[in-house]
Amino acid sequence: MTRQTYISLILILGSLTALGPFSIDMYLPGFNAIAIDLHTTANKVSLSLSSYFIGISAGQLLYGPLLDRFGRKTPLYIGLAVYIIASVGCAVATDINVFIALRFIQAVGSCAAAVASMAMVRDLFPVKDSPKVFSLLMLVVGLSPMLAPTVGGYVIKGFGWHSIFIILALMGFAVLLASRFGLPQTHKPDPSISLKPKPILQGFATVLKNPQFYTYALSGAVAFSGLFTYVAGSPLLFMDIFKVSGEIYGWIFAFMSVSFIGTSQLNSVLLKKYKSEQLVFVGLALQSLISITFLIAAIYHWLNLYGTIAMLFLYLGCLGLTNPNTAGLSLAPFSNNAGSASALLGALQLGLGALASMAVGMLVKDSMVPIVAIMAGSTLIALVILLVGRRNITSLADMEGDAIVMH
């Protein structure tokens, strides 16, 4: 593989992975504007974020077997077409309940891109290189929280919130073209894979029984739910509690992403000296310490706007260290059914993220404590899962060149 081909693949796979985050982040500054236009409240609008997380979580399980059965590209095209249509529907919605439903459909479409991207990483790159590739994808993905809310704030101010979803539809079309002409078919269709419910569930069960998968996928997903807690709670935290404008909120959100991007790229450097398993443990231990400190400070009202930003910056930095490694370690044991494994990984991450975001919508009113409590609780649970589960795992070094083929 030439360097030019390598860079091209990373950019296209990154754009597939980034479509979901853009769909989540870009409309966040418009919560209040949507609430006014659709005659509802910002808390009700936040349910459109929860419905998106639920849709993208459920859709992961749908696309996993399809990607293994029909190859990577055909299900990807169908999913992107659904995404484009639903995005246009969101732009013209006049009722909050219709808007929430369309966000669910939009998510079901977009998750085809996320699952296909993870599966293609497993198809195209050696097992030992997966954490590094995921770190590079995090660089591309990390641009979305830097750009999306900031650009979204100005677009909403100049053209209204409806224009956000027209832009997302155009982005979906651009990603569809890039996938069609820039990606190889990395997995041939496999007619032996059944699409009947029982074999699909048996395949998922086989993946879930693998100690490497359930330890790192579950610990990584529980920890990563802290990010969804932050995303769902940040409009309420900054615009309602701290009373910043939509444009300023966009800049704060962009600044926060520097932490996630920076540590995900630092991860690539650290992998030259340390194992992925070591970096996951260190990342979760630091995240636990930071989240406990953050919770105590929130309870006793020690934090103003700038102190809150500082604590969130440190917390998100830990996620940039753990997430690429847990993703790589989770998928390492699988080859033929990498689509199903990728789907389960994504479903765990986004399903827990949906629950976290729903909790934020129900609990957060005029205090940051519920947000920080959810973040701290998820981090501590993730650390416990890691410590208990890793006792039964074969190390990544023992698996290099000998990935298990599972059906």
UniProtKB/TrEMBL annotation:
Q: Which GO biological process categories is it annotated with? A: xenobiotic detoxification by transmembrane export across the plasma membrane
The protein's matches in SUPFAM superfamilies, at most eight in alphabetical order, are given as: MFS general substrate transporter
Could you list the residue ranges forming a coiled coil in this record? none
Membrane-protein topology: Multi-pass membrane protein
- Compartments where located: Cell membrane
**Main location class:** membrane
Query: Which InterPro entries does this entry report, sorted A to Z?
Result: Efflux_drug-R_Bcr/CmlA, MFS, MFS_dom, MFS_trans_sf
Q: Where is the Major facilitator superfamily (MFS) profile domain?
A: 9-394
Q: Where do transmembrane segments lie in this chain?
A: 45-64, 76-94, 100-121, 133-156, 162-183, 213-233, 248-267, 279-299, 343-364, 370-389
- UniProt keywords, alphabetically: Cell membrane, Membrane, Transmembrane, Transmembrane helix, Transport
List the Pfam families: MFS_1
Q: Does the keyword Transmembrane helix apply?
A: yes
What would be an example GO MF term here? sodium:proton antiporter activity
Gene Ontology CC: plasma membrane
The entry assigns this protein to a family as follows: Belongs to the major facilitator superfamily. Bcr/CmlA family.
| UniProt-recorded name of the protein | Multidrug effflux MFS transporter
Q: Which organism is it from?
A: Flavobacterium zepuense
Organism lineage reads as: Bacteria, Pseudomonadati, Bacteroidota, Flavobacteriia, Flavobacteriales
